TrEMBL record:
Entry-linked Pfam families: SEFIR (PF08357)
Ranges for domain SEFIR: 71-226
Top-rank taxon: Eukaryota
Name the UniProt record assigns to this protein: SEFIR domain-containing protein
Keyword Manganese: no
Localization of this protein: Membrane
Keyword terms: Glycoprotein, Membrane, Receptor, Signal, Transmembrane, Transmembrane helix
């Protein structure tokens, strides 16, 4: 075999090795790129899955506890000292709870005939015993005595409102005694609740109700629903969301919009009344 042919044959293995090395490098680069794209997909997929699970969770049907054959009975108590605007807000709250929170609401203004027959305190004592829950809407009027009540309330044409203005202090004391007795006997206090509208303060809640659950309305409507029906708002992997009772969605229904408007009007009237009181006090100090 000529020497030139032998030299050519010796180059062939080297060329094969070089081609194999280049092919290996290209294959390794391709595998690395595919692995990187796969990792990128894995980084995105959990978010998509989580979003899908949250969307699915929001659409799940929540079954209320079966031990209660009828809607829970809720007694709403309030003070008439803060005027008709505050009472209107309480009435709108009762209408909203009864229509959109699967609850049977009882208020003195809705049962004036029975109050006229039994008397205010007798009626309240009976309703406190019969109700599953008691919600006290606290306001500045609970810090006042009936002898210093607003003349506009005392001379109002609505007899039920006058009765409430004169008996709200006694009712709060009665409920406070019930709470204290239940606490002393180690009983559950979930029957009793206190709430304030957003134009009131936590300090408006009487001392007698310091041991019970407190809510600020309307933003705590979901918490109130959870309390009334014994369902958890949060659970592993999901949460309960009812559009008509969320802080953003309750105004989409007519009774929710009326509640929002009544709360705004009551807040404006109370602010104006407070400003007038402060101006009057300032003028008295200047005169002195």
């Amino acid at each position: 075999i000529p020497s030139s042919a032998l030299a050519s044959l010796a180059v062939v293995p080297a060329l094969c090795l070089a081609v194999a090395a280049i092919f290996g490098v290209l294959l390794a680069a391709l595998m690395g790129w595919r692995s990187k794209m796969h990792r990128k997909k894995l980084d995105v997929n959990p978010e998509i899955i989580t979003l899908h699970e949250e969307t699915k969770t929001q659409k799940e049907v929540v079954i209320l506890p079966e031990y209660r054959a009828t809607p829970p009975r809720l007694l709403i108590c309030y003070s008439g000292h803060d005027g008709p605007a505050h009472v209107k807000a309480v009435m709108q709250l009762g209408a909203f709870i009864q229509q959109h929170m699967a609850t049977q609401v009882c208020m003195d203004l809705w049962d004036s005939l029975s109050i006229a027959e039994e008397g205010s305190m007798t009626w309240y004592c009976r309703k406190i015993r019969e109700s599953d829950f008691i919600l006290v809407i606290c306001s500045r009027g609970h810090r006042q005595r009936h002898d210093t009540a607003d003349p506009e309330v005392i001379h109002d044409d609505n007899l039920a409102l006058m009765s409430n203005a004169c008996s709200s202090d006694a009712i709060i004391q009665l409920i406070g005694e019930e709470v204290g007795l239940a606490k002393a006997q180690g009983e559950d206090l979930s029957k009793y609740m206190a709430a304030v509208f957003k134009y009131c303060k936590e300090t408006d809640i009487p001392t007698e109700l310091s041991l019970v659950s407190h809510y600020t309305l309307p933003q705590d409507l979901p918490l109130l629903f959870s309390h009334l029906h014994g369902v958890a708002l949060h659970r592993p992997g999901g949460y309960l969301k009812i559009n008509n009772i969320t802080e953003e969605g309750f105004t989409t229904v007519p009774t929710g919009a009326a509640l929002q408007l009544a709360i705004q009007e009551a807040g404006m009237m109370l602010s104006e009344k407070q400003q007038q009181t402060e101006d009057s006090s300032y003028c008295d100090r200047v005169d002195v």
